[in-house]
Amino acid sequence: MTAAHGAAPAAVAALLMVAVYLTAARRLRHRGDAWPQARDASFAAGGIALAAAIAVPPPAAPFTGHMAQHLVAGMVAPLLLVLARPLTLALRVLRPGRVRRALLVVAHSRYAVWVTFPPAAALFDVGGLWLLYRTPLFAATHHLAWLHVVVHLHVLAAGTLLAFAVCALDPPRRRWSLRWRAGALLAAGAAHAVLAKTLYAAPPPGTTFATADLRAGAQLMYYGGDLVELALAVTLAVQWYAATGRALAADRRRNSVTRAVRG
Amino acid sequence: MAPTDPAAEPRAHRSMAAAALIGAAVMAAIDEIVFHQLLGWHHFYDRSTPAVGLLSDGLLHTAELLALVAGFVMWADLRRRRALAAGHAWAGLFLGMGGFQLFDGLVDHKVLRVHQIRYGVDLLPYDLVWNGAALLLVAVGAALALRARRGARRAERKGARRAERKDARRAERKDAR
Asked: Which of B22, B62, B112 best probes binding to A when mutated, by most A CB atoms within 10 angstroms?
């Protein structure tokens, strides 16, 4: 993303989004609701990272720099934003009315159920990346400014969708099981790793990059992807640990009640 | 699988599986750090890798990451339930490490030809040492597993005998009354 095509307004929009979140969280706490500070920090970090990826030209060779921006805009920032549960916050802070109702209609629509079906989200995200880097699409984004913007919006939106679907932190109409979510994470991670390795060997069709640049960019994609996948996996693991912990505690309570009754 | 607390039974198979996941992932990490990054022997991609090798490499690489996390969270869960069978866990760790090393040495390097251990050298001694080390780890794991199983059986028998004696004493007391 060069600093040309509307980068400044986009970066400002990302920072505004952070301001809205922080204001909403403060209002919630003011009302007496609990809302962990960690979520504010996560959302702020995500928004600032996104704004930086949009506005700051990376100090690296062209392909590596592009990959660094993609990594932040498509994987790191989406995860940080999703971990802050923005939908939950919006539903809690909005007063009953047209906006809240509309948000609920969209969030609980049948369409949303299928879009957040983890394998579908994985396909949108990594399938889009394969289209970008393995067809002349990537070369075309260098000539058409609007296509450049559309591609980056897709990378951000699809990355956010995948993180949203895998983490399933905000209340969905249907919560897909851990198997579906972990399976989609595995498939998406594998497709991402394979794509990175093919980029190491050959640039996207219609482009030429210095070999060292191409290889550094591909390795950044591979190992950078690993870090975000690890973070997603840890999120799933923590959810599982907490859920089995609740079941265990309930079981212990039941056991102690039966013992007390018997004894 | 109702958790029976506080006298939790050690769960042998689950302990072994959790540690095996960690072992495989640790070996994969050693492979990545030592042979890819530090020594620079393995190539990130040696261009002769067939498509199926590339696909299996991507799947395996991501699976290792998930295995590391899954193994640790299973281990933490067993600890929380006081159901970790330590002997079986050690056996699982070695089996996982050796199993991964053997799979990497035979399937990845030889069958799928993802990459070789080192380039521009006679590969035979490298392959022998690599797979020999893998077999050694598997053998240690198998021996530990046998020992753990024997230990668990002994403990079971001891427990049963103790329960028997307890029952007998109780019966005696009843008779005396």
From this structure: B62
